[in-house]
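so my prof wants the structure for this chain in the tokens format not the other one, which i didnt know existed until like an hour ago. anyway here's the sequence
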Amino acid sequence: MQGVVNSAWILAGATATGKSGLCQILAQRLGASVLSADSMLVYKGMDIGTAKPSPAERSSVSYYGLDLVTPDQPFSTGAWLESIRNSLKNTPAPGGEVAAPLIVTGGTGLYLKALTSGLEAREACPEKRGFWQNFLAQHGLTALQHELRRRLTSTDSPLTESTDHRRIIRALEHLESSGKLPANWLSEERQPSILTLRLPRAQLHERIRQRVQRMFADGLLDEVRELKRVYPQWSFTACKAIGYQEALEVLGGKLSRGEAMERIIIRTRQLAKRQETWFRHQQNTLWCDIEASDLVEVVAEKVLHLWHEHGKTQLKI
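here's what i got, hopefully its the right format
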């Protein structure tokens, strides 16, 4: 009999906050599996630049959400969620009745939101999405909010104040396709609590610098060279991935190794800032403040305490 996973322990956070190593320890302690909610870890062969769990780590803990597609394939939040549904549904549960514990970790907000709040059923319309993306580029966020406001009644006003342009564009797509929004979009209910690691900014920046240096020392350029040989054409998302875009430019003679490293550091810091902003505004975030000097065992105990205090998060999969 298959196990049904309807709740999980979630540990989110910006890139380089130490989520992966911490969840490896927690999973071993709890006898749990780990679901990666990271949009870059889905690509096969993109290992070094994404800090993907090592083969040794994956041999001792069961992972989901890794290596789902090759770099030449397009991928979406909906495709990720469907893959996760299938994987969890087809996983035997110990004892045959109750699913094994699950830990969800990552920093891709849309993936976490899809897990905890569900994903609208209607698929994106490329033409409509392209129109509104061009509109945003030409006229800005305020004009985009105005266009949504014109199409909604006063009772829908909270959505028009959103600063998430992707959410506004999806709302405009829905309105043009069906004349209405999914019911849950109009709710002012706060999202489920998600435990989120947070490092002081200066410490996070230093960790990012060290990670980028380690990526190059571990052979990022060789990894990208081989991936490009096997997959000459990459999807838009894969070729723009932080670290991989710069490595491609080094191999193409457009950047020096040092220039690439500095650009990756800057882009990763910008990503971390966007992730923290998303957690502040899009989720009912339960912050877990840590220091870079904290022993991983100490942080693990802190996380376990908060998990048990606040309980698991319900999943909508």
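also thought this was worth mentioning. The longest helix spans residues 257-282.
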